[in-house]
């Protein structure tokens, strides 16, 4: 009777936990998969070396004096580097496909092991049930010698031990199976992110080609026309800063210091993998030249060649996005004055009372309302004159701004002298913060 009760409890346990539905998966050849994964890894290593050389070449070109020749050379070198970036991303996608297949192999193997453990447990329970069905008196009468009694008792103990071992093995196999399934889902999410990156990188390549054609057309391949274009960009920048200051001066927002963190290094993460600050916040040499209508620089500029991945400095929600260059293109066709501004920008509201803006982007791969995590790629840098999304920039870089969330709004320059049609983040002057005070120490 004791074994009947035990068997019933074990069967109930198996039914509710271990005997969960499993799916049979067709297995690819594990050794072939390993060879393919290794081959893709070696190919990617070679691509990374090529990417590193092109990046060094691009940085050298971008350090040259601003001329039409260096601008065209920069665009050509950028296109080569972007092609290498795309190949690396495609290689990562291929690798993730192979990893998923490998995980499916492991999952299939564990599911087959579970079937084996189930059968072993069922057989053991059946044997124990046979022992339990015999009465003690009949069992004793059936034994010829006392040694037979001890032998059967030993077998019963062995069956009991075997049952415990099989249940433990089943539990461990099920645990590994669940871990492998979780890993598979993680890789699939990473692959989805990679596909988004690939789409963004391809759009940057398209913008690069258009930018070169546009640059040569607008300058008529003449250095004097190129220098004139740079001067016009600087003039539009001053006009924009003038309008921005006027609009921001109208804002009178009371800021509650308890609703945002005090400056401390490490609250934010770097927006780039490789960090070089080209202009700090506040009273910089460039600001003193009159570039910002007599005010300080309202963010931090980082060296970033066109197509460099830009990452969220902190988890948050995409509060807004825009591209002032798209409106400028329309106004230019109509013969109206255009506005020098941020170009393509992304505004992220964080949960700690801070909001960050990323400007002069060549592409974005997020949507308004989307939640993003710290370090997640949100777009790609631009800033090359003539590239859609660069705004008034005179060279490739990332502009990062930081605000107190209470004091920033997305506004249209309705009564603007130069930028009536522009939508950009606008903040109370007190709401501007120095990003370097919140980023990691340099």
UniProtKB/TrEMBL annotation:
GO molecular function terms attached to this record: metalloendopeptidase activity
Gene3D superfamilies, alphabetized: 6.10.250.3150, Glucose Permease (Domain IIA)
Entry keyword set: Coiled coil
Domain named M23ase beta-sheet core: residues: 296-403
Top-level taxon: Bacteria
SUPFAM superfamilies xref list: Duplicated hybrid motif
Coiled coil region boundaries: 30-64, 160-232
Pfam families in the cross-refs: Peptidase_M23 (PF01551)
Protein name, per record: M23ase beta-sheet core domain-containing protein
Organism: Candidatus Zambryskibacteria bacterium RIFCSPHIGHO2_02_FULL_43_14
